Amino acid sequence: MAEALCRTTGSALLHPLSRLLGIPLDQVNFVACQLFALLAAFWFRLYLSPSRASSGVRHAFATISGIYFAVFCFGWYSIHIFTLVMLSYGIMNMASIPNIHRYSFVVAMGYLTLCHASRIYIFHYGILTTDFSGPLMIVTQKITTLAFQVHDGIGRKAEDLSSEQNQLAVKIRPSLLEYLSYQLNFLSILAGPCSNYKDYVAFIEGKHVQMKLLEVSWKPNGHDKLPEPSPMGAIRHKLCIVFVSLLLFLTFTKNFPVAYIVDNQFIDKTSFLSRLGYLYVVMQASKPKYYFAWTLADVINNAAGFGFSGVDERGCFHWDLLSNLNIWNIETATSFKMYVENWNIQTTAWLKRVCYDRAPLYPTALTFLLSAVWHGVYPGYYFTFITGIFMTLAARAIRNNFRHFFTSPKTLKRSYDVVTWLVTQMSVCYTVAPFVLLAVEPTIKLYRSLYFHMHLLCFFVLLVLPKKSEGHSRRQPAVRGTQNSNTNEKQK
0.85 cut: is pTM over it? Predict the structure, then answer.
């Protein structure tokens, strides 16, 4: 036990605190750095604001602080993060525009996959819950996002781009300082999320809020100056979520270990419905660590003044540009699509922009497969995302063929919503269980104990129900990353 608590690749400075709390040192280092980043973010917004410091100073501070946090948490393993960033910057400057996105994608995904493979031998199925692969996954998203946006901005005609691609296109290659700041800034180095390059640079230059207000055609109501909305309300709300999530993680999560669902005695002595019910409880218990890490990451960005998304119809300001989840929509989802659209939102946006919107054929399948490769090489990831392909297609077929029969009256619609909520929650639990189990043997053992019922239902639906195709231009992404089982997580 003591050996497990002190195991880390980073600094041992907080080892006494780790022993006092009974929490592994790698997790203590991660949380400590994120809390310090939160304090630094407040300071950054107040004392290194665009009115007080130049863009160069803000870029430099964000970069140096991010590098320090990475080294503190991951020690010499952080060299992998820096190596990939520098390799990609070389491609950004030397590759031809027609190929810049291809080379960047292959190098970034290839390097990430090699690190994922080596991680199995170094850490053996996640002995460390927060290792260097998490930040490397975020950096990979940023590298490929920027490469595609530079390709769109310089190498393609505006009329060939979608409205979103045109809006996010980058027309000038970034300088070294801008590139390093975007990739390694302390706001997102440990847990993300991946932001768009133009949004990040606008934030550093002090144009972020104004840009978002102009995007929604803000009317100043007789005032000459645009407002300067404060993020404090959003920060307080999200910090409450962070606190509750941490409390649930330390209590609820610890009492429902995932290994119990494949325990021989449990399987032999419980009924099918009991096993299904316990699966739901265990999967619920696995969520608080993601809620904690992603919401805290969102708070850090907001505290620095980054993440303003605009104004709603009531005139209320919103700070959810970088939010990675919508907990209410997740827990009340009545369709597979609604669930995944509110889980790891920024990773889904990345998958959509680099794969789903650009795939000439089979966009859903290719996007799920890219998500699996991005997450790592553990077999459980591939069980989850390949199962997710069939779940998505089956859920879409059922919805397209039957939903219109239950839209009225209200009592019928409510009954339909209750049934679809239950089916959605159980289908998600069934799909993501291998993601938590990681290995082949426990995954097959679990699915055998559940009689592969969801797989069989999906195949039956896809064979029997007529298919209603959707045009390429109207596609909606149906996959999110779940960000590596590391706590330092973007999605389905």
Answer: yes
